[in-house]
Amino acid sequence: MRIGDICSNNLPSVATIGFFDGVHRGHRFLIDQVRREAAARGLESAAVTFPVHPRQVLQSDYRPKLLTTPQEKLALLAETGIDTCILLDFTPHLASLSAREFMEVLKHRYRIRALVIGYDHRFGHNRSEDFGDYARYGRELGIDIQPAEAFRLPDAPGGEPVSSSLIRRLLLAGDVAQAATCLGYPYFLNGTVVSGRRIGHQLGYPTANLRPDHPDKLIPANGVYAVRVETEGRTYGGMLNIGRRPTLDNGDDRSIEVHIFDFDRDIYHEPLRLSFIRRIREERKFDSVDQLTEQLHRDATAIRALLHATDTAS
């Protein structure tokens, strides 16, 4: 996948536009439509996206929690098979353009000949226009405008289409398994191992404390999770706790701590990736440290069995 802003050798293309947070199954369904259309026309396929959420330009205090950082998003877009990713800086000037003016930019600067528009996508100043307007401008400018189908899971509640907003809601509710179904892959969190209070060592479950690489990356709901842990080029099973450790009087500090099964090396300051498989319970306060330790034994046994079952199923 080529990545660029503006270059003299842009090839005519069929494109789509979006922020593509998470590059989920709905996005991949849309990009598949773009690739098919491009192949039928003998053109390149392209995705037009933005490094920063456009709403952050329009609303300075808006800080959305991201499913993917900019670097993660580009890596996932490359997996879709799209030929080119066009990165646009969403500036105040760009925000002031009407839909027709923006389409002129797409045609003359980026040589876009056809545009596949997502079922719920709006662009142009105030996002006040719709597909009928885009189609009319396309006829005037020589850009073929095509509607994209929405992607819905067969068992989705109420038939709701897969969207980044839906996935954020699932993660904030702790339903990482359903989020993975919508994403097409387990939700993941990249970070660096930092020093902690070493209480896990005292309980018999030493943990790696993770500091996320990006401050705006969405952290799922508090609780205990079965996870896959990637470190030093290998993957391990793990038991993750997100929360404030109420039994240990951790105050208001929220921590991300993972006990890595069958692992005993020092990985302070090393990069680590957590892939969420399932939340097995909510975080809760126990009457004593002994009760907490007993529960950790039960959690570890349950998580090992769950991870083994998922290995067998795959």
Automatic annotation (TrEMBL):
The keyword Flavoprotein applies. It is an enzyme of class 2 (transferase). Coiled coil: none annotated. One of its GO terms (molecular function) is riboflavin kinase activity. It comes from the Bacteria. GO terms for biological process: FAD biosynthetic process; FMN biosynthetic process; riboflavin biosynthetic process. Pathway: Cofactor biosynthesis; FMN biosynthesis; FMN from riboflavin (ATP route): step 1/1; Cofactor biosynthesis; FAD biosynthesis; FAD from FMN: step 1/1. SMART domains: Flavokinase. Belongs to the ribF family. This is Riboflavin biosynthesis protein. It comes from Candidatus Bacteroides intestinavium.
